[in-house]
Design brief:
With 69 residues, the chain is of the alpha+beta class. The protein has 1 helix and 4 strands. The longest helix has 12 residues. This is DUF397 domain-containing protein.
């Protein structure tokens, strides 16, 4: 995880927002980085960014799609 650095602290990343955004606008954003996926809160883009391995992200997405999470 990265320390808070203010909005735009990781400007080189291309962030994608979930298409399943809650009615109040809460959702996560993800970005690809070498050998990992960056994840952040869309409402607080300047706060900490979590980095997870691509294999962990694929497993997480599969578990959600299969209803295991």
């Amino acid at each position: 995880m990265r320390s808070p650095g203010g909005e735009g602290a990781v400007p080189e990343l291309a962030w994608w927002r979930s298409s399943y955004t809650a009615s109040n606008g809460n959702c996560v954003e993800v970005a690809r980085v070498p050998a990992a996926v960056a994840v952040r809160d869309s409402k607080r883009p300047g706060d900490a960014v979590a980095f997870v391995s691509r294999s962990a992200w694929v497993g997480f997405v599969a578990a959600v799609a299969e209803g295991r999470l």
